[in-house]
Amino acid sequence: MDGRRACLVDAFTAEPYAGNAAGVVPDAADLTAAQMQAIARELSASETAFLAASDDADRRIRYFTPTQEVDLCGHATIASHALLAADGVIEPGAHTLETEVGVLDIELQDDGVVWMTQSRPEVETLEITYDRLADALGIDPARLRDVGADLPVARATTGLPYLIVPVNFLEALSGVRPDLQAIEALTDEYDATGIYAFTFDTLESESTLHARMFAPGAGVDEDPVTGTASGACGAYLDSYEAFDSMPDDLRFEQGHFVDRGGIVHVDISVDDRGRKQVSVGGEASVALDGTLQVPDIEDDEIIEA
After folding, report:
1. Structure pTM?
2. Which CATH number is 122-281's, of 3.30.200.20, 3.40.630.30, 3.10.310.10, 2.40.50.100?
3. Which of the following is catalytic: 47, 98, 184, 283?
4. CB-based burial of residue 111 (10 Å sphere; 0-12 exposed, 13-18 middle, 19+ buried)?
5. Residue 47 is a catalytic residue
């Protein structure tokens, strides 16, 4: 069997065992999709990133959950580039990354913060009753109506789509008892990855909001800290003019109710064509660095239910 280096890297935190853990295989050259899937299942992180050479960018990346390949993953992207920086493979500055949603710009700062420019934002208001949403989240519908007068429920994407649901207070968000089957039915109906519920009531005074994200349809009951959903929420806040003046640094808390607290920085800017552009940024810390054996998998060995 062929051995490959495999790491667990905690993203959106400066300390290991917090934030969101991503698997990273820095040399995935010649691995088949079935082998990547088997490695991701073994590492059992919410997503594992596999890096290889690219003709169109500095490198190519593919993302696998323990059960399926996904097009984009923010925290695994941050984790991968933090690992490359720690290894001395990349230096501070601009880099490019080929993904299934296109080539993305990556910026590594001198302080180790990795920024990921996401895809063009799209935001759409949805007509979902608060009673249905409240049943899915296990929350009093009044907690949603309070905020809904100013900020609607919407489907937002900057690469992966999410249902964005504002909640009035942190106490209500902390008390969410999700009905995972109901959430999966909602996200399937609206072609979304998960539900991103947030409140402007925060643990830290310098934070913009506190969030929780549920994506049972993608095999993630509750994600600790979600880069792609944070980007989608940044686009949402900008689209609905949630602030009189958009803060220079949007700081999103997440993961504290699953003991994996982390911080995502979100930036809203205008590109050289005058279009809105969303970037997410954060730190990362290597928690595990080792070698995995690559399984010998033949296509005819894969059993489909």
Report:
1. 0.90
2. 3.10.310.10
3. 47
4. exposed
5. yes
